[in-house]
Amino acid sequence: MNTTVSNRTACVALAVGLGLVTLSACGSSSDTSSGSGSKTVTLVSHDSWAVSKSVLADFEKKSGYKVKVLKDGDAGEAVNKAILSKGNPQGDVFFGVDNTLLSRALDNGIFTSYKAKGLSEVKSQYQLDAAKNRVTPIDTGSICVNYDKKYFTEHHLTPPSSFADLTKSAYKNLLVTENASTSSPGLGFLLGTAAQYGDDGWQAYWKQLKANGVKVVDGWDQAYNEEFSGSSGGKKAGGERPLVVSYASSPPAEAIYSDPQPKTSPVGVATGTCFQQIEFAGLLDGAKNEKGGQELIDFLVSQEFQQDMPLNMFVDPVTKNATAPADYTKYAVQVADPETMAPRKIADNRDEWVKSWTSLVLK
Questions:
Q1: pLDDT of 17-48, one tens digit each?
Q2: Is the peptide bond before 242 cis (omega within 30 degrees of 0)?
Q3: Of 126, 145, 312, 343, which residue is most buried, by most CB within 10 angstroms?
Q4: Which residues contact 191 (CB under 8 A, 6 or more apart)?
Q5: Residue 336 to residues 142, 271, 282, 333, Cα–Cα distance (Å)
Q6: Residue 68: strand pairing partners
Q7: What pTM did the predictor assign?
């Protein structure tokens, strides 16, 4: 969800502490797979990739491939690196391009078509490239404003529930968001406001947010783990903002990694502020181990991996046959009607919107 998400770095770090694994590969393509006969397959991803040791070991045992993972920063940064290395990629499969950046990746031709085994189990609404299958949907989630329940209880204040609420004087100087030009949740939040208020209305909305004291930081980790008063990291860092742009899956992360686990999460979600995020994987054009890359994509949409994702990367499965773990669903917040936007519209407007947003909000 990067992203990215982007974008769930702290949750993944905590996952490592519970015996899960994030794998980092060597820093150059020279020590990855050597050809189609290689028994190593390299996954290029944003920093939030994570998988359970046992699940990864099962794939390696069944397929005969050793998986290496090359992490390339935030989702936006990783996509840009993949574009720059087009035709001579750093690995075989790219994971983590989301619907906010999908058109940029497809227009630059960094993927080659592959129809994954098990694709029929992926729900149709997530298959945004069904005609060509250059990318395969892997997970979904919602970028939303989160709130610190304790703060609002202590201040006898009702939490915001919509985009419009965030401009009210009661919430002045309470919201922190990420830079839309450097962060996928920041960009997703901008797109959510554009979907809500239209091409002609989103700038007026952001003028109101700016006047109401919105704070902008570079990325999710800083926003959530330093500025947000409701996160475990924010409490330690002295975070003072009780509203943050994050994910609908943040409440499960906060609750599951608390000791002892609370009956309810200390973090809530303003469900009227959400924008749907879908993350994809694709076989990189020029992949040295194309066959291994295809098997890896098949694995990413398998029931085993799909059911493993929620407690690792705090995202939702996209397949019909996957069920999220009980610990995840216990605390998860359901978003019935998140804002969405067609990839083509994002492609046609994204760069200009980000430029206008930067001029309006940061200057």
A1: 223 333 333 333 334 444 556 799 999 998 88
A2: no
A3: 145
A4: 100, 275, 339, 341, 346, 350, 353
A5: 10, 8, 28, 10
A6: 42
A7: 0.84
